[in-house]
């Protein structure tokens, strides 16, 4: 093997893992950006989606000729539903960041794999293995330790944990809608359509809550731009790149690293030191989520119906 061949082989093997690591780091910053922004959480969530959707618009237009055959009343329901569910997820999750720790909100907001698997079982009648149910039991036990410890110490923190858990349910619904929607649209087209619906939904949510979308400081606008660029664009593109070269059975369980990354980053950036009971509950929940991911994706790891 020549030096050139060896370098090409190394890059082909290492780049997907580098992309996965970058994606986890970028997504792990999400809660940090929400805290840094001097604005309500749903407002930060709105600009995260709105600005990233504007960035993707030229790429969506380039694919417009391919979208005409896919865009109809039967298929538009999936990005429409996905956008609404994502808006609800971001509204609940970004608000929870102000009522509980960044680590807790990220961990409980990332319980989506549990709800995806349960939804697939209830709605699509997919069979689940014993490993899944064991993982689910562990994840729920860990979540109880986290939520329970906060709720009894300070009810306000417990409410934040519950809001983050609710966000995880909505995020799971988003995944289920996306699973079907991606059978009809390529990834950029689906993300753009979903982003438009989610942006409109979040704008209406902010209007209903009485949150202004303007009048913020220059520093806050920089945070809005950073969360759109880092958390949404770099984060999701990096994960999508990794998923194009690595099996879902590798990528999905590795995503449990996101709340771990947030916990680590929150120590120097937010000064949040997790309590021992939270560390124990988090470790148990992460183990359960890992087992759920592995059990589900070993069973249903299939190639995408669309090409990107």
TrEMBL record:
<feature type="transmembrane region" description="Helical">
    <location>
        <begin position="277"/>
        <end position="296"/>
    </location>
</feature>
<feature type="domain" description="EamA">
    <location>
        <begin position="22"/>
        <end position="147"/>
    </location>
</feature>
<feature type="transmembrane region" description="Helical">
    <location>
        <begin position="131"/>
        <end position="153"/>
    </location>
</feature>
<dbReference type="InterPro" id="IPR037185">
    <property type="entry name" value="EmrE-like"/>
</dbReference>
<keyword id="KW-0812">Transmembrane</keyword>
<keyword id="KW-1133">Transmembrane helix</keyword>
<dbReference type="Pfam" id="PF00892">
    <property type="entry name" value="EamA"/>
</dbReference>
<feature type="transmembrane region" description="Helical">
    <location>
        <begin position="76"/>
        <end position="95"/>
    </location>
</feature>
<keyword id="KW-0472">Membrane</keyword>
<feature type="transmembrane region" description="Helical">
    <location>
        <begin position="159"/>
        <end position="177"/>
    </location>
</feature>
<feature type="domain" description="EamA">
    <location>
        <begin position="159"/>
        <end position="293"/>
    </location>
</feature>
<protein>
    <submittedName>
        <fullName>DMT family transporter</fullName>
    </submittedName>
</protein>
<comment type="similarity">
    <text>Belongs to the EamA transporter family.</text>
</comment>
<feature type="transmembrane region" description="Helical">
    <location>
        <begin position="46"/>
        <end position="64"/>
    </location>
</feature>
<dbReference type="GO" id="GO:0016020">
    <property type="term" value="C:membrane"/>
</dbReference>
<feature type="transmembrane region" description="Helical">
    <location>
        <begin position="15"/>
        <end position="34"/>
    </location>
</feature>
<feature type="transmembrane region" description="Helical">
    <location>
        <begin position="221"/>
        <end position="243"/>
    </location>
</feature>
<feature type="transmembrane region" description="Helical">
    <location>
        <begin position="250"/>
        <end position="271"/>
    </location>
</feature>
<feature type="transmembrane region" description="Helical">
    <location>
        <begin position="189"/>
        <end position="209"/>
    </location>
</feature>
<dbReference type="InterPro" id="IPR000620">
    <property type="entry name" value="EamA_dom"/>
</dbReference>
């Amino acid at each position: 093997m020549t030096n050139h061949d060896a370098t090409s082989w190394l890059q082909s093997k290492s780049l997907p893992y580098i992309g996965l690591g970058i994606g986890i780091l970028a997504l792990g910053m999400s809660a940090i950006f929400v805290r840094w922004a001097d604005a309500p959480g749903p407002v930060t969530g709105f600009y995260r989606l709105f600005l990233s959707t504007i960035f993707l618009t030229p790429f969506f237009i380039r694919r417009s000729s391919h979208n005409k055959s896919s865009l109809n009343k039967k298929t538009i329901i999936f990005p429409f539903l996905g956008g609404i569910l994502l808006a609800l997820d971001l509204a609940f999750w970004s608000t929870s960041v102000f009522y509980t720790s960044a680590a807790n909100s990220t961990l409980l907001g990332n319980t989506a794999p549990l709800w995806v698997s349960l939804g697939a079982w209830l709605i699509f009648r997919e069979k689940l293995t014993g490993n899944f149910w064991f993982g689910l039991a562990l994840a729920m036990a860990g979540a109880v330790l986290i939520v329970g410890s906060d709720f009894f110490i300070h009810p306000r923190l417990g409410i934040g944990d519950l809001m983050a858990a609710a966000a995880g349910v909505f995020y799971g619904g988003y995944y289920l809608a996306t699973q079907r929607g991606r059978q009809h649209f390529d990834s950029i087209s689906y993300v753009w359509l979903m982003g438009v619906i989610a942006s409109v939904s979040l704008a209406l949510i902010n209007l209903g809550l009485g949150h202004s979308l303007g009048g913020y400081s220059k520093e806050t606008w920089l945070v809005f731009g950073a969360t759109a660029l880092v958390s949404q664009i770099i984060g999701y593109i990096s994960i999508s790149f990794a998923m194009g070269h690595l099996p879902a059975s590798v990528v999905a369980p590795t995503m449990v690293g996101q709340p771990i990354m947030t916990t680590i980053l929150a120590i120097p950036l937010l000064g949040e030191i997790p309590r021992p009971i939270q560390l124990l509950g988090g470790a148990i929940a992460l183990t359960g989520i890992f087992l759920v991911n592995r059990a589900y994706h070993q069973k249903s790891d299939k190639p995408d119906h669309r090409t990107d």
